[in-house]
Design a protein that fits this description.
Helix content is about 80%, strand content about 0%. It is built from eleven helices and no strands. It is globular. The two termini are about 20 Å apart.
Amino acid sequence: MPTSLAIPLALLAALAWGSGDFMGGLASRRAAALWVTGFAQIVGLFVLLFLALAFGQPLPAGRDLLIAVLASVSGVTGLAALYRALAIGQMGIVAPITAVLSAGIPALYGSFRLGVPAAATLLGFALALVAIALISGGPRAAGRPAGLGLALLAGLGFGGFLVLLPQADPAVNLWTLTMARATSAAIAVLLALLRRTPLPATRGAVLAIAGAGVMDSLGNALYTAATGLGRLDVAAVLGSLYPAATVGLAMVFLRERLRPLQLLGVLLALIAIVLVALPA
């Protein structure tokens, strides 16, 4: 049945987004986050353009173009904030905080559209708040963790993107994504030029940027497919499981370690996302 396909598609989107975020965060430690965002968006633009042409979708109408522009502004704000947060903070802390917000906003939107959330969803919201408090404790006893404010901004940006994008006509979703990616690429590159940020200079940074752009675009395509086959809120919260991939890659390749309470917070965040995704 179509709805059952939405779940694996959303989970694949989470895997793609989490892998892309790891590569984007890694690149942002070697290059300016704005250039990482801009170049990743350009790479992703070509991926989406290829998919749109390959599937032979019709061009979007004026309303869909407006949705694409609004979604791109929200999304590129979230992506730039996330890459910078991943560059200056711990990936295992930044990614779950962002994910809880980016899952919660579509879930709340869905509850207004579809009625009061189920008991499991309400429990998920409660666990999410506890998770944010635990994760925000930071790696040291004093002060908040680096990148916390940027992680919250990223969550708001992604939440808006996840709500706006499915409002476009599903028959032109790949073109809507392409238009959104073109807009966000232009915004990021223009800001980088205005701020005169240095260009990425290392081969490793360029490869990581390319990987981030490809995986982020694939994640977006899989997510829009999932929203077309099932509920928006379910697809959004399952897609927001992406920190599992980001945290796992950071632990394997960067040897990141979390304090016990922070690790508990990460686990609660992931459980919260799953609870919110449970059907009523």
